[in-house]
Amino acid sequence: MELPECPVCLQNYNEESTVPRVLSCGHSVCEACLVELPQRYSDTIRCPACTQLVKYPAQQGPSGLPKNIDLLRLCVEQSSSKSQNSSEQSTNNGYDHSQFCPRFWSDEFYTTWKDWIIPHDLVSINSKSSGHERPGLGFVLRGRFGSTSSLKGRVCFKDGHDLSLAPIVSLPPTSNSKFRFCYVARIMKCLQGMKEAEREELALILKVSSKQNRICKVYGLWSDLVDGYLYLVCERHDDSLPNKFGELRNGFLGAGGDGLSRDGVLSFAMIGMSICDALIAFHSGGLAAGYFGLSSFCFDELGSICIDLNEVLLTGRQIPATVMNTISRCSSNEDKEGVIRDDFLKNEVFISPELLFELLPKESISLENGYTGHLIGYSSDVWSLACVLLQLLFGNSFPRYTLLMNEEEGFNFSASYIDWVGQVSSLMEEKLGSEYLTFRKTLYDCLALNPGSRLHVPDVRKCIQGMLVKSQFDVLGRLEVATNMNSTHCCLILGELCQFHKETSKAQRKCDLQEKQEGGEPDFSQDGEDQADEGLSKGMVELTDLRGHLNCITGLAVGGGYLFSSSFDKTIRVWSLQDFSHLHTFRGHEHRVMALAYVDEEDPLCISGDIGGGIFIWGITSPLGEDPLKKWYEQRDWRFSGIHSLTVSRKHGIYTGSGDRTIKAWSLKDGNLICTMTGHKSVVSTLTICDEVLYSGSWDGTIRLWSLNDHSPLTVLGEDMPGEVKPVLSIIADRHLLVAAHENGYIKVWKNDVFMNEKKLHSGAIFAVSMQGKFLYTGGWDKNVNTQELSGDEFQLDVRSIGSISYRSVVTALLCWEGKLYVGYADNSIKVYNHE
Q1: Which residues contact 453 (CB under 8 A, 6 or more apart)?
Q2: Are 802 and 788 in contact (CB under 8 A)?
Q3: Are residues 468 and 446 in the same domain?
Q4: When comparing pLDDT for 337 and 347, which is higher?
Q5: pLDDT, position 131
Q6: Rounded mean pLDDT, 212-226
Q7: DSSP secondary structure code for residue 214 in this structure
Q8: CB atoms within 10 A of CB 199
Q9: How many domains does the chain divide into?
Q10: What is the DSSP string of 334-394?
Q11: Per-residue pLDDT for 104 more than 80?
């Protein structure tokens, strides 16, 4: 037989260094460990063996506790272990709590993405634009909705900042369940349903935009939940290059075309270098596009040019669809030349040759000159950069790239390109002359068909800076610019993110939903492949609706194969848990029944308390009787109402919370009053028991803890919190967690006696709470049952909203039991929800 040992240090007890001291809960701990145990509250300590709060003589220390002379720790431990196993078996009943409302994501996934989700009410879309705004101001959704679908609205944060929205992916469809997943849960499910490559690309875009000041900031992800799309919310600057220099039809060369003036050189050089800086920042983050235009760049508040990421993404969405449009038009159009030019360059978007080659169907391209395409990367953006600079210089004189097509052989890629480069070279020689020979050669090299022969962006910037040769411009300095050209990069247009889900309009979505309701399954294929999208199918569905009460439901309890419900109609109804049929009604209360409890004794009992102070004990043996086994009344005080709350301990008896601000302990056997606990300053509205501790909540806004061994007070929670009194209406304790629901719609959570979190869950009072595993269910005045997950560690606890169930009536009672959620409402009904 092993010698008894301390449960903290695991050292054997002796008369010298590890003297066993007996706590009021019956467990023994050595003196040295008792000194080191943390004291969350004054004059109390939590037993390391059973986690019960017990009295502790703080001034005297361990010497104030008796020695365990007989060392009965092993016997007590065995008894405690047996009791604990029995309690866990009774609580679990073979059901896996973690599956009661399974989530769709891991803690790591949630932590990674939660800070990028913009709250739903932080972004607003106004349907009207003020008169001074230019036409089309707002955001434009392209690609998914056909050619262009413009919403004439204004997207802004509540403080008035203008934003732009880029559609990223379709939100998964919701099921027909009455359970509605919350805003964050729907977005989390959407992100989880994306391909890993899509998420990696999206994460890269978010990361780069947050670190590079030359890229328009991306605030995060948002959805209005109406059109069913997840958007990337970007910073918007209306002062884009086309808006700023749209009136310069002849570019910086001027109307005469006689060459660059001194002012023209300065303006062009400053704009050109700023464009290069923005592109360098873009590449430094590992991003590449393969296409750019004047509309891709805008001015920020400080006058620096930055890349409009939203415009780049929206343009990228258009390009593949436009290419296919072009092929279709060429197959039926007699005048086949100029189609590519008109489709792409009318919006001043310059697509690199290798990107265009990649997007065109290979069977439509003539390869007679040996061009087979190249990899798309940073050099592709250099080609587009050169076109943007030439557009700024020459304006409308800049020759448009026309992809010629032969009816027999298809698009003659190489011949078209050589012809176009010749036109550009002749124009530069004519307009710029020999004065800017180096600049001409730089741009010419940037337009090479082979990306490997092109210069880098820093080289282009240095060349532009070199145009400022006069001394009066030396103040600008000759900065050495370099960039880390990573071997790996993300091409926005060819990345997974641009391969958008199948286009579905609102009308189509409604049709799909109707089709699903009729038994069909809507098609949410992507990239021409059928991909199953289970949507948000996992929720709570209504299993049955129990009716029979004539007034508001006040309490629910389960036991012995029955569901018990109490009501303002002065009755307790008994329902079968198998088929939810009504079996019996207990009558006898003369006042509204306010609280209900079930006791699993050898002879199981149902106990009820009413507003008149009556306590009734009902037998649950078959057949169910008409009269209570016992009944008695607490002493009534005419100034206060009767019983408001009730809970039962098989070992210690019945506890009632009253309108007279007291808690009374009653003998379960004969109904005698054992003691009265005072301390609350208002109605004791809720009671619960966990680990031999009684928790009481009151309208005075506090929660008091009481020892069940001697009914002495242990501590008070909420008394030291500043602010107005927020009445506690319901509490629930589960091992190390304590949750209190308040009249103002907030909950407060304690873990291991430490306050962890406070969060507003409802727009009105929370009347009922229940917990199953990590999932917390709350219901109240706003007629919603909300589901939250409590997740975290010893230092932080998150209250994560999952979803809600809405109904037409106020929620007054909640109970979780074996995968089912029982909800009592003020309209006399009881609904049973099951996890689908």
Answers
A1: 445
A2: yes
A3: yes
A4: 347
A5: 34
A6: 86
A7: T
A8: 19
A9: 4
A10: S--TTHHHHHHHTTTEEE-HHHHHHHS-GGGEE-TT-------SHHHHHHHHHHHHHHHHH
A11: no
Q: Is the pLDDT of residue 329 over 80?
A: no
Boundaries of domain holding 787: 540-835
Query: Given the structure tokens 């003369």, which residue do they identify?
Result: 590
pLDDT at 79 (0 to 100): 41
Question: Based on the domain organization, do 475 and 567 belong to the same domain?
Answer: no
CA distance 47 to 105: 36
Same domain as 159, residue 138? yes
Residue 394 inside a domain? The answer is yes
Sign of CA dihedral 144, 150, 152, 156: positive
Residue that is last in its domain, among 460, 495, 530: 495
- Counting residues of the chain whose pLDDT is more than 90, the rounded percentage is 29
Tally of residues, the chain:
836
Residues 511 and 575 in one domain: no
The pLDDT assigned to 783 comes to 95
Q: Which residue type sits at 452?
A: G
Backbone angles phi, psi at 634, to 5 degrees: -75, 160
Q: Verify that 430 and 546 share a domain, yes or no.
A: no
Please check whether residue 129 is in contact with residue 137, taking contact to mean a CB–CB distance below 8 angstroms.
yes
pLDDT at 372 over 80: no
- Angle at CA 669, nearest 5°, toward 664 and 672? 40
Residues 813, 768 contacting (CB under 8 angstroms): yes
Q: Which residue has the higher pLDDT, 342 or 770?
A: 770
DSSP state of 488: -
For 390-407, give the DSSP string.
HHHHHGGGSPPP---EET
211 and 351 assigned to the same domain: no
Q: By the 8 A CB rule, do 464 and 280 touch? A: no
Confidence (pTM): 0.70
- Is residue 148 a contact partner of residue 172, using CB atoms and an 8 Å limit? no
